[in-house]
Amino acid sequence: MTWQENYQVWQDYQQLDPALAQQLAEMAGDQEALENAFTKPMAFGTAGMRGLIGPGIGQMNLYTVGAAAEGLARFMDTLDDATKQRGVAISFDSRYQSREFAHHSAQVLGAHGIPSYVFDDIRPTPELSFAVRHLHTYAGIMITASHNPKQYNGFKIYGPDGGQMPPIEADKITEYVRGIENMFTVATVAEPKLRQQGLVHIVGEDLDEDYLAGVKAVSVNPKLIDEVGKDMTLIYTPLHGTGRVIGYRALKDAGYDHFTMVKEQAIADPEFPTVEHPNPEFPEAFNMAIKLGKQEGADLLVATDPDADRLGAAVRMPNGDYQLMTGNQIASVLLNYILKAKQDTGQLPADGMVVKSIVSTELATKIAEHYDVKMTNVLTGFKYIAEQIKLAEENHDHTFLFGFEESFGYLINPFVRDKDAIQSTILLAEVAAYYKQQGLTLYDGIQQLYKEYGYFKEKTTAKEFGGVDGADKMAAIMKSLRENRPTEFAGVNVETVDDYQTQVATHADGTTEKLTLPSSNVLKYWLSDGTWIAVRPSGTEPKIKFYIGTNAQTEDEATTKLNQFETALSDWVKD
């Protein structure tokens, strides 16, 4: 059907939700908005879906959410009854319509006789992952658009292990979603009736206590908190999101008495009024925290994104200013602290394993090698880290110690199977206490790592491709990059090209070898000086991401190299 035909179907539907009907009327005459909303259905993949809130088959609304829940329900109908009756845990963030989408999903599942366990209020994504495992549900639904701007929302599906739904099952769910001919006919049952039938259960504090107990256990050296941490000054901002519910309690439970929340950003507000982007990767997200930090002389500033799975931090510099840490730096200091502390206390297992994405820093690899710990690389997406944890448990061959992605996602203890900013906040504060005990700051700690292992610098850039034809443009660019393979960047030879789509690594001499990771639309170039460059379309946003990782003996040398490669990459892509 054309976008005009899809648009007409929505106009003709007499029972359209009144709010959506009003928005639809306001869109009349805006052809670009109508094309974006009605040309293509929302992309539904292994991580679910994410998009702008509004009417249409290509946006987040009650009907597209209902169709997603219906796809999950139809898949669960194919399972044995005992598995189906394990039900689905459902959580949601502070965004517009998140609560409505969560309860609507429960009503769709209820029409299939599938029980739901819905949180009484906003909760973080990692707690939803925990809930799936703790309640032994078959699946989980998280209504969130993570760190996207306020106009977005999303629908993520989790599997029985608390990680994002495995690819085979996710593909089957996707088929069911795409097989729905008319999303307006998806059946629901009123929630009061479902409550009477025992098909909707409201959960909250009962799970909070158990999740927080797990978070408290991530502490490697509780005595350090008692001796130093309790007097350390911290600033925490949940950026108007779910972290305000759990983050405050987690810090208190851990023993950090001198911390302050940025009160203006502790309000769960879907407008995110104090930040343009509610994303701890963006420096402006820390503006209010920095102002408060300077007033109180804070040792550490931490920020979590709206669904509290990503953590950003800023460290106090020698001159009293604050500098944002990169995701790779946060991961490196966390990893070094974990491994050193376990080694010092004789608790470092001989079969220890760390897992990171292929676009994350190689500094972590150097740290793992120093402690004789296995480093496992996986594709981008925390589901792949969760998969490695599950395999290690099933095969009894490795003990998981830490997992991370450069995009500010970390996991310490695997009672959760997704990145967990609450866990990470507690441990990063402990690392800050560790350095404070030595008269140092986290900034000093990072510098120590660089002096020991070399100066590693990384940078991620992106080109956006919005609109109806954005996906086609990105596909054309990736095709062009494969057909016009570079042999050098900034005068440095390319030694190997890893093409994860074809699963083949091609060396400069023409020889090839098979890559063992799953097929994915990613290109990674290994250069003769140890630099690597990766290119991949984002799985959640209409953009292509470009990653650069380099290293040198001094910070100036590493920075110069990074800038040179960034310029070369920009020129190459432009050509």
From TrEMBL:
Q: Which cofactor does it need?
A: Mg(2+)
EC number(s) reported in the record: 5.4.2.2
Matching Gene3D superfamilies, A to Z? Alpha-D-Glucose-1,6-Bisphosphate, subunit A, domain 3, Alpha-D-phosphohexomutase, C-terminal domain
According to UniProt, this protein's pathway is: Lipid metabolism; Glycolipid metabolism; diglucosyl-diacylglycerol biosynthesis
**Reactions catalysed according to its record:** alpha-D-glucose 1-phosphate = alpha-D-glucose 6-phosphate
Origin, by domain of life? Answer: Bacteria
Provide the top EC class.
isomerase
Q: Where is the Alpha-D-phosphohexomutase C-terminal domain?
A: 510-550
List each copy of the Alpha-D-phosphohexomutase alpha/beta/alpha domain by range: 42-181, 227-314, 327-453
Q: Which UniProt keywords apply?
A: Carbohydrate metabolism, Glucose metabolism, Isomerase, Magnesium, Metal-binding, Phosphoprotein
Q: Which GO terms describe its molecular function?
A: magnesium ion binding; phosphoglucomutase activity; phosphopentomutase activity
Into which family does the record put it?
Answer: Belongs to the phosphohexose mutase family.
Q: What is the protein name given in its UniProt record?
A: Phosphoglucomutase
Organism, by scientific name, is Secundilactobacillus odoratitofui DSM 19909 = JCM 15043
